Amino acid sequence: MAANFSLRINGQSRTIEAEPDSTLLMVLREQLDLTGTKYGCGEGQCGACTVLIDGRAQRSCLTRISSLAGKSITTIEGLAAKETLHPVQQAFLDEGAMQCAYCTSGMIMSAVSLLNSRPHPSDREILQAMQGNVCRCGTYPRIVAAIRRATATPEPVRL
Amino acid sequence: MTKAILATLTEPERYELHAPSILFETNRREFFKFLGTGIFVACAASNAGAFQESGRGRGGGESNLPKEIDAWLHIGENGEITAFTGKVEVGQNIRTSLSQAVAEELRVPFASVRLVMGDTQLVPFDMGTFGSRTTPVMNLQLRRVSGAARDALIELAAKEWSTEPARLTAADGKVLDSTGKHSATYAELVKGRQITQLLPAEDPLIPASDWKIAGQPLPKVDGRDFVNGKHRYPADQTLPGMLYGKVLRPSSFNATLQSADTSEAETMPGVTVVRDGDFLAVAAATSQLAAKAAAAIRAEWKAQPQPSSKELFEYLRKNASSDKDAGDSYVAGNVESALSSTQHKLSSTFNIAYIAHAPLEPRAALAQWDGDQLTVWTGTQRPFGVRQELAAAFHLPEDKVRVLMPDMGSGYGGKHTGDAALEAARLARTAKHPVKVVWTREEEFTWAYFRPAGVIDITSAVNLDGKITAWEFHNYNSGTAGFRTYYDIPNQKIVFHEVNSPLRQGSYRGLAATANHFAREVHMDEIASSLKMDPLEFRLKNLKEERLRAVFEQGAKQFGWNAPRKRNLGFGLGGGYEKLGYVATFVEVALPPGSKDIKIQRVLTAFDCGAVVNPDGLRNQIVGANIMGLGGAIFEAVEFDNGRITNPRFSRYRVPRFSDVPPMDTLLIDRKDQPAVGAGEAPIVGIAPAIANAVFAVTGIRLRSLPMGPLLAAEGYKLS
Does residue B307 sit at the A interface (CB-CB below 8 Å)? Predict the structure, then answer.
């Protein structure tokens, strides 16, 4: 049975009418027209749908809308402060860390989540945090370089 | 390399050829209205004929020659420069590199160029974006039209100022005279005019050594739209009143629909059910409702027993065409007599699994009908091919169908067809609403097509001084791309055997070149090893082609091929010539005692694709191709049983991830004296043989299958 759900998305309160088993990914894309969050696999294996829930990376394809009461959701569209890109977004641009870029939203959200908890991650921590995100174009080395750049501690990257 | 060989090597794979059967000329009046005044540079019929895959020249006889002109470039009186191309952006970064070509020849700021790509109503006909043809063909074409536009503007200014064109120069979007008396922007020159300029037959281009914008590592033109989520991929397209479509898939491949009970689905609010032959699908206001309606349909399918991946390689060999009625082949000298009279003969067999493209954006399409006019936004490498498929399916003239291709979440050769477009259009026609169909990952893994599996047999003969005298090569099913050898061998027999593939198969990045290079370059290593020769030295001994020698030699130098090798570490190399590019890849692998995983320590790829148009984009392609190639080399394989894919998910089909990626170096050999050619495919071919050869170097185990990982594990590899 459809019900109303109050969500806080990108700093705004939104009321959504949806089935309780609707996923956050469906609601973002189909009801809120926030299409920056991508479908890639529907089983939490590729990371294309990654968003921040209370600052932590979550797979929106596996997140039920009914589980989000009182939580704050950030999507790729809500990351920049108006015209100023988030440092991770800027670092992806500066490193040219994309090809088709379909994975880019999810990559950036996973990286932001990592840097929220570990401002200066080791290479091992970067790999662990990013391992669930797939880039079929194979841009991985540049993505690691972008994360390094965003932490302002550029070091030679050895995967 | 002779011209004949070059022609063979650059031909598209057989399954890439989809020549239109019916040709309709699109009404271009609307197009000119859309652009308004300005300068159009066009490709006239006589010139288009030279470009069989782009422009109106579609090959064939005189009667197929174009009757009208296509615009390729427009300079508006507001100063906006728009170039039109049927090529599409799939992540290979051609929106940027083609813009560089236009800006370079037109002598305008890079940022003033806009590209309209892959919209069948606005761009000249193009066969599609495949075969690494964008740079050698379209980049050159856009340079030529931009140069012609620049010359037309100079002539216009010369008339206006009553002077000679030779006294004028073009720079930074302006025409200037040498005295400094006159200057006008392009926008000022075209104001109020509508000019059509034909492309001259011969027009000198700016040589690569003088490039200022082309040749630079410029960033992706619209990169910002990709880091802030604004770019709308095909799957992100929406229209007012749009419904979501869901197709009911058969129980297995080649199944036919026996019966379907759709009564429950039809009672659901706003649900449309379509049954048309074996096509059974629903449309509803949300994807969730569409999925529920589809689940409520009880369908019965009937299929015949089908082969499984366990018996694949025996199947391919048993069901192949014989030598006599084989497909393509190449013969030189007399291989039979050379093989029978040899002192030193070697035979080996290679097995190649089916693999999936698995582009992160699955197939997607949004279709809208307006009367009998059909518009479809879809992710495809062949917008005109999809237009033709739609026109044929709905019995429409092609000018009633418009296909638009928003820059998509890649394809790697896997999105040549219009499956999702046809499905969305069929649903939209009955639902009387726009319908979007986005395939699930499981559909993408099952109902798309695969990189062909194959079996390759090689028998060779070699003199004891290391010169190869005979080379017999049989490829079963995997394809002809790159099946000819670039080594200098007097007696050759190379045969492609067609097989009725148990799975739907088609193009893949590099096509069969990955399989053919794998087999050839591993076999080369086997011969070298049997002669106790260094693999690099052995290759060079049998290789005349200077540019290929250069990538092997310079790559080896940078990699440190001759450096002492540490215990448990192995070096391997593999390379070749593909899609006009020369590549050599070197890897170092570690296999410590008891390990069953191939751990790659580092990779270096040396690459020569002529004059480099954008070194930053090029490095991205080379590294990306190697990483994609690493997946197929070590662990990717599609498994199937009786018409069903048994690993159709990322949790069961392993693709390369962050932890699989070693440090990757690239060595660009920028040949400014050579034409710029493509780079999306060739760099994928070297890594698999390089890994196999490195594994042999450290373990003595020959891995002759793709993927190699399971094989190494099966060998029960132990290093004492």
Answer: no
Beta carbons within 8 Å of A111's beta carbon, 6+ residues apart: A88, A129, A130, A143, A146, A147, A150
pLDDT higher than 70, residue B48: no
Nearest to B399 by CA among B30, B104, B664: B30
Helix (H) or strand (E) run with residue B367 in it: strand B364-370
For residue B697, give every residue at least 6 positions away whose Cβ sits within 8 Å of its Cβ, in sequence order, or none.
B565, B570, B571, B572
Domain-embedded: residue A52: yes
Chain-chain contact of A76 with B229 (C-beta, under 8 angstroms): yes
Residue A42 lies in a domain: yes
- Say if CB B620 and CB B96 are below 8 A apart: no
Task: Pull the structure tokens for residue B274.
Answer: 């379509």
Q: Do B628 and A98 touch (CB under 8 A)?
A: no
Q: Using an 8 Å Cβ cutoff, are B394 and B403 in contact?
A: no
Integer Cα distance of B319 and B477 in angstroms: 10
Residue B131 forms part of a structural domain: yes
In which residue are the tokens 């290079």 written?
B517
Judge whether B312 lies within some domain.
no
| Cα–Cα distance, B687 to A34 (Å, whole number) | 39
What are the pLDDT digits (tens) for B448-460?
Answer: 999 999 999 999 9
User: Cβ(B632)–Cβ(B709) under 8 Å?
Assistant: no
C-alpha to C-alpha distance for B422 and B415, rounded to whole angstroms: 13
Q: Mean pLDDT over residues B176-189, rounded? A: 93
Q: Which of B92, B658, B666, B681 to mutate to test the interface with A (most CBs of A within 10 A)?
A: B658
Q: What is the pLDDT of residues A65-116, one digit of tens each?
A: 999 999 999 999 999 988 999 999 999 999 999 999 999 999 999 999 999 9
Give the structural domain span for A123: 87-150
**B623·A139 Cβ contact <8 A:** yes
* Average pLDDT score over residue span B368-390: 97
Give bridge partners of residue B176 from the DSSP assignment.
B169, B183
* Residue A10 belongs to domain with CATH number: 3.10.20.30
Q: Is B553 exposed, middle or buried (0-12, 13-18, 19+ CB in 10 A)?
A: middle
**Smallest Cα–Cα separation from B439: which of B429, B450, B448, B430?**
B448
> pLDDT tens-digit profile of B650-665?
999 999 999 999 999 9
For B422-480, write each residue's pLDDT tens digit. 999 999 999 999 999 999 999 999 999 999 999 999 999 999 999 999 999 999 999 99
Torsion sign across C-alpha atoms B530, B350, B310, B495: negative
Contact A79 B664 (CB under 8 A): no
User: How large is the ipTM?
Assistant: 0.96
- CB nearest B228 (choices: A39, A89, A141): A89
Indicate the number of domains in chain A.
2
Q: Are B129 and B95 in the same domain?
A: yes
CATH of the domain at B149: 3.30.365.10
* Per-residue exposure over B657-689, b if at least 16 CB sit within 10 Å of its own CB, e if not: bbebbbebbbbbbbbeeeebbbbbbbbbbbbbb
Q: Round to whole Å and give the CA distance between B367 and B418.
A: 12
- The reply to whether residue A136 touches residue B358, judged by beta carbons under 8 angstroms, is yes
Quick one: pLDDT band at residue B43, thresholds 50, 70, 90?
low
With respect to residue B514, please indicate whether it lies within any of the assigned structural domains.
yes
Residue with token string 């309209």: B116
Whole domain around residue B282: which residue ranges? 237-299+363-438
| pLDDT tens, residue by residue, B330-358 | 999 999 999 998 889 999 999 999 999 99
- B236 touching A (Cβ < 8 Å): yes
**Number of structural domains found in chain B:** 3
Q: Do A138 and B626 touch (CB under 8 A)?
A: yes
Strand partners, B85: B117
Interhelix angle A123-130/A104-117, rounded to 10 degrees, is 130
